[in-house]
Amino acid sequence: MVGFASVASVKIHVKENKESRLKFTRESYRAFVQENSSERKTLEVIAAVGNQVNEPLFYKILNPDKKFEISRTSGVVSTTGIPFDRETQDTFEVVVEVTREGQPEDGAHVLLTVTVEDANDNKPMFVDLPYHALVQMDAEEGQVIRQVTAVDRDIGQNAEIHYLLKEDQEHFQISPSGEISLKKKLEKESLNTDFFIVVVARDNGEPALSAEAEVPVTVVNKAMPVFEKAFYTIEIPENIQLHTPVLHVQANDSEGPRVVYTISEGDPFKQFSIDFNTGVVHVVQPLDFETHPAYKLSVRATDSLTGAHSEVFVDIILEDVNDNAPVFLSKTYRANVSEASVIGTHILQVDAKDADTGNNQDVFFQLVEEKGRSSDLFTIDRDTGVISTAQVLDYEETQQHKAEGPRRGRRRSGPH
Question: Least buried of 6, 147, 196, 252, by fewest C-beta within 10 Å?
């Protein structure tokens, strides 16, 4: 990620508050809930005590969420039956307040942290699709011809993946790690034949989930160079220095190192070159994202003795350059906050503008970690710039806090 930053100063004044005589039986509470569950479940009993026996106390959630509810008189926190999605949010922080009857100003607060436990609800997903493989006619048994890879958004054993073939193949096999290899030598009749292998990626969840991908395998003459990959993709900045190597394509020839490389199509303005002998692609002319954001080169590998050749596509994607730093709308922000404020109280919002366009004007906020600053007492929403309390504040210890927050440009990933 490429970005710029600017810094603004934030001063927060803490107001004195008289200490409440109410106390919770614990400093904090923790509970767990199963992902996707629609059952109402009791999570925790939040208990507080006052100075009088059997004194009526009243509880409420200060940061309401439709997924949680609390009994006003007993302090029992429960789920409401709305399912949780761990991949969207894996932790919830519920702030509970207790007060005396008729004395709402005399309250105490405690944090309940709810963790969402993973359910196996995501199938594996293959990456770098589509797949294609070439195998030479005289390839030996055990030769690896393709690696397939899948990912899973779950965690733990629910995200552990192994691979297998959907149907048994006479000539091909796959390892649990996704390497497709030759199980049996090919017959002469297989030349220029296409085999279609269906690969299965299966996770270790209960029940297990799986995904499938098709891998066409083409048998080629032993004299034809075979590229190591079915296609190549690279992303580079538009202001990359000229003559910088950006990619290495490589083809193998069973007759030895006599392969030469050329760019056959996709480069009408001769902005790229390829080393004749090594297959290293260089940038030789300036690139401009706004004029031409992507290139699809066709690279040819030729057997210098027989003239047999094969080709592969090379996708070169340009990144737009972010060359303007964000600017805060104010150099200094000030706010007052009571020391009785609960964790998560919103204090103020900072804002800034960026002169760039498109994705490069998108920004996020963060507090600077600097010696002597109070950034650990506060948090900032990376998207909105809202500053909130992260810890309980103490007026007697510190009456004024100063935090600095840069606003940085954020670049989204380009297409792949």
Answer: 196
Is 23-117's fold the same as 125-220's? yes
User: If you write DSSP's letter for every residue of 129-145 in order, what string do you get?
Assistant: PSP-EEEETTPPTT-EE
Eight-state DSSP code of residue 255: T
Superfamily for domain range 325-415: Cadherins (2.60.40.60)
Provide the β-strand partners of residue 91.
115
Domain 23-117 has CATH 1.20.1250.20: no
pLDDT at 69: 95
For 275-318, the three-class secondary structure string (H helix, E strand, C coil) is CCCCCEEEECCCCCCCCCCEEEEEEEEEECCCCCEEEEEEEEEE
What pLDDT, on a 0 to 100 scale, did the predictor assign at position 13? 61
Query: 226-319 domain in CATH 2.60.40.60?
Result: yes
Residues of the chain with pLDDT under 70: 1-20, 51-54, 104, 223, 254-257, 323, 355-357, 369-375, 403-416
How far apart are alpha carbons 250 and 398 in whole angstroms?
A: 64
Of 339, 355, 353, 338, give the one whose Cα is nearest residue 385: 353
How far is 186 from 168, CA to CA, in rounded Å? Answer: 16
CATH topology for the 125-220 domain: Immunoglobulin-like (2.60.40)
Going from N- to C-terminal start, the domains of the chain cover: 23-117, 125-220, 226-319, 325-415
For residues 211 and 173, the answer to whether their CB atoms sit within 8 Å is no
State the Cα–Cα distance between residues 227 and 312, nearest whole angstrom: 7
What count of residues does the chain have? Answer: 416
